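Long-time lurker. I teach an intro course on protein structure, and each term I like to show students one example going from raw sequence to a predicted 3D structure in token notation. This year I'd like something fresh instead of my usual example. Would anyone be willing to generate the tokens for the chain below so I can use it in lecture? Attribution to the forum is fine with me.
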Amino acid sequence: MDDTILDIKNFNVTYVNKYKRVYAVKDASFSINKGDSLGLVGESGSGKSTLAMALLRLLPEKSTEISGSANFLGKDLVKLSEEELKKLRWNELSVVFQKSMNSLSPVHRIRTQVEDIYRVHHPKATKEEIADRFIYLLKLVNLSDRVYNLYPHELSGGMLQRVSIAISLINNPKLLIMDEATTALDVVTQGQILDEVVKMERELDMTRIMITHDMSVVATSCNKVAVMYAGEIMELGYVKDVLKNPLHPYTKGLMSSFPSLKGKKEKLQSISGFLPDLSKKYEGCIFAPRCNSAMDICNKKPPVIEMDNGRILKCHLYGGGM
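-- Reply from a regular --
Happy to contribute to a lecture. Here you go:
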């Protein structure tokens, strides 16, 4: 039996206006199996959120071009009509946005907003049915059932984020995308929410994509990681493999800029330079201008190398370029 939830192949997202084209995501390919938790990591501007919003088809159609395929449970998200997408969004495929704690109406009780949201897909549901379902989810995210009758302004930021996560789960989605969902929270609250998310995955048999720039979030709450730079996936594999033994120079750079709580204290190393201009096309490795290991062959497009244990790497260092 095929356990694949999402299979993305040669996925491209380009922003277009009358002046130029911006190649935000280029030839992204990866798959997610049932029960996986994939951390999509990279610095700001790498295309992580663009990839997620393109999968959900929430980017403005007039200024966005999407190509490739994104097979979600046998349906290509790129080719679905708007009506077909409406049946999937927040039902089988759900999302927690960046700073989603600000997305709730301040003048309506949580209860009223949840009822409106649930009835989009279940128009005949009673108030009692909705309350039972949502209070169960509130307990999963460690909130009291009294929260159901409160206004958003009566809750703290951490509580609001928990409510947003509970709302995203109300239809028991097959895949949940969390886009920097804990970034705006303090470290303690972030840790608590991540623990609760992992617990929910086990209870609800859920699959997740976690978009973040924080390696610690990936290390503590994901089993797979995809490292993204300037719209391209540079390295992908199991967290235990990639974070313990990073191979791509960009992954190594990210790890070197993150402090370790164990072992000898070492000076943090930054990655020099800046993200490239994504309105231009590049023949060679897009990371080469910032790479300390760059060679002459890096002027050519690097190969995509499939290694043991499902690990994927895009780099000349491991493709016969040494």
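Some talking points for your students: The chain has one domain: 4-92+171-318. The CA atoms of residues 210 and 299 lie 32 Å apart.
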